[in-house]
Specification:
Strand content: 25-35%
Number of helices: 9
Largest sheet: 10 strands, mixed
Number of strands: 15
Radius of gyration: 21 Å
Distance between the termini: 28 Å
Structural class: alpha/beta
Oligomer: single chain
Length: about 290
């Protein structure tokens, strides 16, 4: 079977080089199970291999190079907003979103068994997780914050260090996996904390249940260009669910726009894209796909 490369930034285990059916830990890996289910597969029931890749660029290139069928990337968090590096990759590498899902994320503070909060001098986690727990961390101003490639690797590093002055912010499941103790059950600032993951592929794949269209556009640098574009959506009764600007590298404070909208009737899609194309400098269709909520 083709390998599916999963970039699982906010939750559980890193899968290094597993090429057969992934059975161990899947029964308790809620996130991986939800991702697989939303993308149409129950991982532990089919012969699919998983490989962890620590770089978003390497993962995207693996998809483009045909070394895997799909990749999974975190694209947006309800607390911290968009992951701009992922949008940059989608635009520059021209891979396609073929599915997405929203998953609840809960962060716990993990440490060696018997550790007290007063002993902790350093907390490690992924930078997004540190940001999602910034309010709680601010109540411990003397504790150093250290960014890690992901939350699971932060927990593993704490376990390997064997020091009670180290702790990690990670999924509670990592405590059992790495022999750690949950010191604080939930340190997330916002109880409604969700991350959107997208499944990427080399070629577009539109399914009958597609309900979201994602675009990136650059506009002429003149008055009214954004308003003129938005009027095209309004004229067709289309509902925009995301409109976000991002700087264009190498341009003098000019911006591109990331747009999500409820998927239009397929019959009007060609006309819509042609109309948009006439209004913008560039148009990138990231995907027409279904989002599991």
């Amino acid at each position: 079977a083709n390998e599916i490369l999963c970039m699982l930034y906010h939750y559980l285990v890193k899968y290094k080089g597993w090429t057969g059916p992934v059975v161990r830990n899947l029964a308790t890996t809620h996130m991986l199970d939800r991702i697989a289910e939303s993308f149409g597969e129950k991982c532990y029931e089919v012969p699919v291999g998983f490989k962890y890749i620590s770089s978003k660029i390497d993962e995207t290139d693996a998809v483009l190079g045909g070394r895997c069928a799909y990749g999974v990337l975190p694209i947006e968090n309800s607390t911290r907003g968009s992951v701009s590096a992922v949008y940059d990759l989608l635009r520059s590498r021209r891979v396609h979103i073929v599915r997405s899902c929203r998953l609840a994320v809960r962060h716990a503070l993990l440490g060696l068994p018997g550790t007290s909060l007063g002993e902790i001098r350093e907390i490690r986690s992924h930078e997004q997780a540190l940001g999602q727990c910034a309010g709680w961390l601010d109540t411990h101003p003397t504790v150093k914050r250290v960014a890690a490639p992901n939350t699971a690797m932060a927990a593993e590093a704490v376990a390997q260090a064997g020091r009670k002055d180290f702790a990690a912010i990670a999924s509670p499941d990592c405590a059992e996996l790495y022999g750690l103790e949950v010191l604080v059950d939930d340190v997330t600032d916002c109880g409604f904390n969700y991350t959107r993951f997208v499944c990427i592929a080399r070629e577009p794949a539109v399914t009958p249940d597609a309900d979201k269209l994602s675009l990136i556009v650059t506009l002429p640098h003149r008055s009214g260009s954004l308003s003129a574009l938005l009027s095209r959506f309004a004229a067709r009764g289309l509902n925009l669910t995301k409109l976000e600007s991002s700087p264009i590298p190498g341009r003098d404070f000019e911006f591109m726009f990331c747009i999500d909208l409820d998927a239009p009737d397929p019959a009007i899609l060609p006309g819509l894209l042609n109309d948009i194309g006439a209004q913008v400098e560039s148009l990138t269709v990231l995907g027409l796909y279904h989002e599991q909520k």
